[in-house]
Write a structure and sequence with these properties.
The complex is a heterodimer of chains A (285) and B (494). Chain A is mostly helical. Chain A has helices at 2-39, 48-79, 87-109, 115-130, 146-176, 187-220, 228-246, 255-277. In chain A, helix 5 (146-176) packs antiparallel against helix 6 (187-220). Chain A starts with a helix and ends in an 8-residue tail after the last helix. With 494 residues, chain B is of the alpha+beta class. In chain B, 37% of the residues lie in helices and 33% in strands. Chain B contains 12 helices and 20 strands. Chain B is elongated. The chains are: A mainly alpha (285), B alpha+beta (494). Chains A and B meet through helix 6 and helix 7 of A and helix 1, helix 3, strand 7, strand 10 and strand 18 of B.
Chain lengths: 285, 494
Amino acid sequence: MYALSQYAFAVGLAALSLAMFLYVLHVLGARALTALSFANGGSMTLSPAFDVAGRYATILTVNAFVFITACLAFRWEASGHGPFSNMWEFSVAFAWGALALYLYFELRYRLRTLALLVLPIALGMLVYATTVPSDIQPLVPALQNNLLLTVHVAVAIIAYGAFALAFGAAVLFLIQRKDSIRWLPRSTVLDEMGYKAVMVGFPMMALVIILGALWADIAWGTYWSWDPKETASLVTWLIYGAYLHARVIRGWRGDRSAFLLVLGFGATLFTYFGNLFFGGLHSYA
Amino acid sequence: MGAAARREALTASAGARAKAAGRLWELDVVGRVWHFFTSVRLALVLILVMTAAALAGTLLDQAAPSVVADKQAYAQWLEEARGRYGVWTDVFNFLQLFNVFHTLWFKLLIGLLTTNIIICSLNRWKGVWATAFQNRIRMGDAFFDHSRYRAQLDAAMPMNVAAERVRRALSRSRYRVATEVEEESVAVYADRNRFSRFGTFLAHLSIVMILAGTVIGGMWGFKDSEFIVPEGTTREVGNGTNLSVGLEHFADEYWLEGPPKDFRSELVIYENGVEVKRGIVRVNSPLSYKGVRFHQAFFGQSAVINVKDEAGEVLYNDTLPLAWQTTEGGRPVGSFALPGRDLGVYVIGPESGVDDPLVPAGEMRLELYRQNSDRLVATENISQGKTKNVAGLDFTFEREKRFTGLQVVKDPGVNIIWAASTLMVVGLVAMFYFPHRRLWALCKRRPDGSTEVRLGMTAQRDMSLSGEFNSLRDRVGAALGIAPTTGAPGEGGS
């Protein structure tokens, strides 16, 4: 089972790398073509070749997602607990979450451009996973709570995935200000995409913190102790809370809101990697 | 958060009225304070400042509250911090950033945010109630002329048939539909997820509840993080309870690979000296009795020590937990005092996991100090089961035992916190996953027997509803036998 999991990981990584390449091709192609059609004063039609690149990119991403899912499932089977107990497992799961959310948004809103920013995050997580030990470690006593381990971290992954997506949309929004770049989606679309991702992620992040507090209360007898990872997750949640309020205030809409999303994802990564910098109660991961 | 948008609008209108008349200063004090706290901008500023404070609390080393309370200990702590933060140490210290979460200004910030949340919620209650429950069924032509999302469909069928089809199409889209029939027209109001509007109150007020829960826990609860019980002994819980806890046995197990597998304490709980409960406490399964919970926190070695004076009288006979660590070598150490003799006794155990040359396995090292002057009187190693005369007293190291370190907690606020957490998740999910949607339709009889159907949806500040509106328009259109209009914008204006 462990070996199967590792094979699935390798295939997933390869598929995702190729998908990334095709997405770049697709978007660059669309860009070149837009320039061309405007130069000719003609109407914009996407060249079949680049369209095909985009379609295959999507198919490959779906495949990568399936293989990463299989990788995690096999590992779950092999270890007997949710694949969320060390950095290797959590990185792969993070990539899984980013891919899941990305695919949901691509299939729902037909926007491939976001791949340029979200896929590198997923890819980065998978590559990072190859640099940390992948062997299955038995669970230390604090982690021996199968239900909470699974739900707490599974929800975290969805939240992180959503925030990665919001980050992608925000960066494109900041590049796209004033709708000056024709081959990118319109800024209103990007703004809304970021907001929709936060709509998915924000309640999930609240749930992550609450489940974490519940678990801490069971395991350690204190639901909140300002542990660095706890505090970092609260900071992350507060930033997205600020974003939700900022988005409806005059003067904060647009650039400043988008900037909060970039900051929020910085905080998300900080929360995720935090236990590598400082000790605290999460230092077993 | 369209609701938040409206909150701002309400705030703005209240202020605008006063401003328009050039008499903002005329609002009474209560009015002005109220107005100040209804602002979303204030909420945003407070959230951002709290975020920055919490970030500082994460990035900078935080001194424990017990250290801050002790002037001398805190001065020493600052000296250590100076090594890391250099000249910034004084700046951070001045801003109280080494103890962010227990400072007055942080509590003040929380107080302001709470006030902000409560006043905003009160301020918006009526408006939200009206939006959710008090919608007019019939809207005039002006509404359908100007609403953000609008469409006009021509149905080649009598008015009542068209109205019924509109009603059914909306029903099938899981909208709740109300109609109002008049001679020349049928008005339709449809909505879904109207309770979602109240999600914002649940989410915001749950924060206030959580804060209340922490206050209640702090006032009527207690927490002892260093409750040490050696094997074979019993210790009183104190803190106003009549409980005491005995440890029968402690065990630690390890995986073959090395990491710990299980820590467990077999505990007996006594109330007024009578056994009332017994059980095994593990890291993820505490023992609870009458609201007092016992959690496994840490463990270590203890030594059974006996001290007799020259006359053979017992001065000390107890199981001494070696719960601290020596600064050099990191050896487990415990201490007790012999006040009559002006002696402080330190018992130092062997460093774990290595062959300790100073304290070989099976031995304890005694260090005796004068209590007044901290002057070292004697140092001696003593083997298990042996008696040794040190400084004129007979010390016996009878045997080694384990001790368990428990976290003993009573927190009457914790259930409020879980209730609030549930409300928060329910509120957020309602707000963001099941947003409230409203649509109005007007079916008007035409002289030729056909019907004009107008649809309208009001704008929402936080997001475009064009997707939702277009799909409703197409469904209604299909029900009226009209092919979906491709490319025709459902959005009016721009």
